[in-house]
Amino acid sequence: MTDVRVAGVGLTRFGSHPERTGRDLFGEAALRAFEDADVDRADVEELNYGNFMGALAEHQGHQAPLMAEAAGVRCPATRYESACASAGVAVREAVRTVAAGDADVVLAGGMERMTNLPTDEVTEGLAIAADDLFEVRAGVTFPGAYALMANAYFDAYGGSREDLAHVAAKNHANAVPNEYAQYREEVSVEEAMDAPPVAEPLHLYDACPITDGASALVLVSEEYAADRDLDASVAVTGTGQGTDRMALGDREHLARTPAADDAADAAYADAGIEADAVDVAEVHDCFTIAEVLALESLGLFEPGEGISAAREGVTTAAGDLPVNLSGGLKAKGHPVGATGGSQIAELTRLLRGDHPNSEHVPDAEVGVAHNAGGTVASAVVHVLEVAE
Amino acid sequence: MSDNGAAADASPPTDREYAEWLDALAGGDGFALVCPDGHGSLPPRRVCPECGSAELSREPLREAGTVETYSVVHVPSPRFADDAPYATAVVDFGPTRLTGIVRDGDHGRDATPEVEIGDRVAVGVGERVTDGERLVVFRPVDGE
């Protein structure tokens, strides 16, 4: 086993890119990642690429060879699909490949193009991440599923829409200085409270936007980095994945996400750390309630206590444990198949000290990334540490 | 594809066992598949998704279930364009939970009832307002 280093990260601006194809978005992210890494493209041994709904959005299946072309690499290329955790699983397989010594250099990331579809078709597209027979045909939308979890959470532990509004306000504030973020404007708790309902108790500002974007990471072995004297100070020290029953109604608990518990346990064990070592986190806040559930699955808060973390200032930029300093999916944006790679790119920048929000975590040494698919039937967790 | 509000996918269920399960539900004979350890699931199943047992038997659902969570959906998918707003709920029926829409009358839009966690509801089969496709419908139990 070798240590896995993040040699370089690349992102597109997240937002609306109506006149660009997915291949161009991923090509841009990969170009930036190679520039950041100072690694020769010819050394790339595999491309692990995440994408969820390209067949619907761009009538484009079989995207991996296309993305290898866009990135200028020729190597085995595979598309990974795990709904909103597509890039998370792509990165995880890249980490495992390098850690096992099967490759020294892997390009990993993902892309999603969504804004070219009308909103109702995006809603329909995202719903295919749920169980078609027993959920989608029964009227469950993606926001609706998280709304079901939010009401179950309120019933089990307490909490209110206002607590969730504080999560939205926090993440929007974090996105303001982030040059890659889709929404770089603050949203007040009052504005979030007054927004129209999507699926009660979730309103407009509880939901992430519809986003185009891509992410790319150049992951290398410690030996490769040392041989070439690369500036690759951040290591991926832990990876974990969990799977749960597909339909929310079949879960053990409607207000918890056991797949993420399992992913976190495995990632922490892999890294040899406990949850209390975590200094900074990027979590999958596709809806505000999802951030709460993530914090509890990661062991950063006890069940029932994550709901008040933003309101009490613990997870704000100035708090003891800043969460989603990138702006999160909520404000930075959520190009579904790119998000898992984007989280690791942002965490790497935060730990290296070159993120616009790094000033809030000057001494951070351990970061955790949490990426979820569907209503967390899939979850991937990674631990990143400053290695030198 | 949906500019006139038509469903993006109006095709009927293509899984025979699912269709038969809906038929049973519509006839008041809703059931779950239950393994010897008591894990409930819904068809099609060859093994219990919890423990892998292949010994699955049909057990009737309870006559009334308990609402465990719900949401009133205001922004629907195209298949439910004319149904919104509607109340989705996850309801415990004993060996399994079911997910469906809560209605208080024969049709959707004007009959979305007030729903609370803990409410008692019966289950049957109704039609989507948007396209007439069959779906799981819960109705409040009288006197509750």
Structural notes for this entry:
The complex is a heterodimer of chains A (about 400) and B (about 140). Chain A has one domain (about 5-115, about 210-380): Thiolase/Chalcone synthase (Peroxisomal Thiolase, Chain A, domain 1, 3-Layer(aba) Sandwich). Chain A has helices spanning about 20-35, 55, 65-70, 85-100, 120-125, 140-155, 160-175, 190-195, 220-225, 260-270, 290-295, 330, 340-350, and strands spanning about 5-10, 45-50, 75-80, 105-110, 195-200, 200-205, 215-220, 235-245, 280, 365-375, 380-385. Helices cover about 35% and strands about 20% of the residues of chain A. Helix content of chain B is about 10%, strand content about 35%. Chain B is built from one helix and eight strands, in the order H-E-E-E-E-E-E-E-E. Chain B has one helix spanning about 15-25; strands at about 30-35, 40, 55-60, 65-75, 85-90, 95-100, 120-125, 135-140. In chain B, the strands form two sheets. Chain B has a five-stranded mixed barrel. At the A-B interface, helix 5, helix 6 and strand 5 of A face strand 4, strand 5 and strand 6 of B.
- Specify the number of helices of chain B: 1
> What's the quaternary structure here?
heterodimer
Radius of gyration of chain B: 16 Å
Task: Just give the CATH class of chain A.
Answer: Alpha Beta
Query: Could you say what the CATH topology of chain A is called?
Result: Peroxisomal Thiolase, Chain A, domain 1
Please write the string of helix (H) and strand (E) elements of chain A: EHEHHEHEHHHHEEEHEHEHHHEE
Sheet of most strands of chain A: 9 strands, mixed
Full CATH superfamily name of chain A: Thiolase/Chalcone synthase
Largest interface: A-B, 38 and 39 residues
Helices and strands of chain B: which structural class? mainly beta
Task: Give the CATH architecture of chain A.
Answer: 3-Layer(aba) Sandwich
The helix-and-strand class of chain A reads alpha/beta
Protein name (chain B): Putative OB-fold protein
Organism (chain B): Halorubrum trapanicum
InterPro entries (chain B): ChsH2_C, NA-bd_OB-fold, Thioester_dehydratase-like
EC number (chain A): 2.3.1.9
